[in-house]
Amino acid sequence: MSTNRHPLELLVRNLELRAPLPEEDRNAVLALSYTLRTLEPSTYTIREADPPKLCAVLVSGFAYRQKLTGDGSRQIVALQIPGDALDLQHLFLNTADHNVQMLTRGEVAFVPREELQELARSRPAVGHAILVKISVEASIFREWLLNVGRRESRARLAHLLCELAIRLDAEGLAEDYGYELPMTQEQLADTLGLTPVHVNRTLKTLEAEGLIIRNKRNISFPDWERMRGVGDFNQRYLHLEPQTPEQTI
Amino acid sequence: MSTNRHPLELLVRNLELRAPLPEEDRNAVLALSYTLRTLEPSTYTIREADPPKLCAVLVSGFAYRQKLTGDGSRQIVALQIPGDALDLQHLFLNTADHNVQMLTRGEVAFVPREELQELARSRPAVGHAILVKISVEASIFREWLLNVGRRESRARLAHLLCELAIRLDAEGLAEDYGYELPMTQEQLADTLGLTPVHVNRTLKTLEAEGLIIRNKRNISFPDWERMRGVGDFNQRYLHLEPQTPEQTI
DNA sequence: CGTACGTTTGATCTTTCTCAATAATGGTGG
DNA sequence: CCACCATTATTGAGAAAGATCAAACGTACG
What we know:
homodimer, alpha+beta, Jelly Rolls, 2 domains, 40% helix, globular, DNA-binding
């Protein structure tokens, strides 16, 4: 699970996916101080209503953002993969409006919030990369809203599986779009706004149609193009190209 | 419909709701150049896949953000009210990932994107205010995801009506939480992930329960506390308090 | 090898959708 | 001001997707 590389290198690579950084800025990110910790599944890194104090970077493993209704049902509003920073959504807010929990066991590097903010201030390229990342996460929220609000269960599930394939692939964590899906069907249900029973049936449908192959929690796609079609998946919303900052003359 | 005040004053007030600005910064915002135009309902101000060139500020009227599935169903992913800037979500992205359209007729001030970005760069307080606004919008996306994914139609509709009441009230556009709802039931349906028929029935239910009073498109709440309860509404996610920037020592 | 957790399946129920028709409303041209 | 048209709201009846309840089956792990 652990790497012997610098833990923050993953963050750099993650940021550089959309906003390449000059050598100096890259090194400045790597020079941030951090504490590395291994967290067990379902450990909270942020709790709703708390003031965010640290900025956590996911080094290995998976995490999710979650909100609860008054009567206790849960909606998972985001999935985070290695390299993602978990607190950017709260970097400019005083109070957390949702919870972040580990999905699997994983390593998290805690960076002092102030240090990161200072870095963003003093190094425009880093600041820009962070803003791009925040904006892309917001874009994913919008697509999920479309997914949950307007796609039937089969397309909805297929869309999520496609998104994970592309995001993991972009980080070099998928092989030929196949990957290990680290979620129970109950967690999938809470992500998709469905029940676990229905997720199970929908998974079986996709499987029966030859759209996915499951081995334990391993998912692969025998016919990616058809899968993309079923999931109505267009990756534009992931903004997976360099997002160049506007140049001031 | 039009005001004789400076159109950008609304933007300033909107930003200052969460991030008070020093006099100088306030004036700098007001000094931005702009073109004021009146737009008819359903006019696009941003189109998916286009590069955002201008930054539009809603001066009067309402607008919405929208995405479509491949088979043409629509999900409204955000509602914008007077004072809102319509392009902050794309300020750091090269390509629009959703559409923005006018909901009602209204006035829009178009500000050159570069000028706004330069202002954000040169005036940290303005930059901070913009980042807070972007972050709050993302928070609203998350709450909507919870709303659409995990609340039944009655609570879901009630929640949206509560949110609009609070947001409009914060801008001084509601009276005792009552307001004119400028949406057709079809638009409400596309916002909530429901069908127009079901929205109609759900509205009637709320009305029959004495939770709302409707006069044409005017909505008021005879018993706000009960309504809040039914909508499972907690306004924390709107972050309606000053979001103070982290201080560097 | 037993316990806890996750998956799978069946039967039935409910919410919400679909289809279709009717009524209201607002705006327009005469 | 009135008749007409397009849009929006309302209502009913029936269908369907997805939820609920309950049980059985697997699997991992102490």
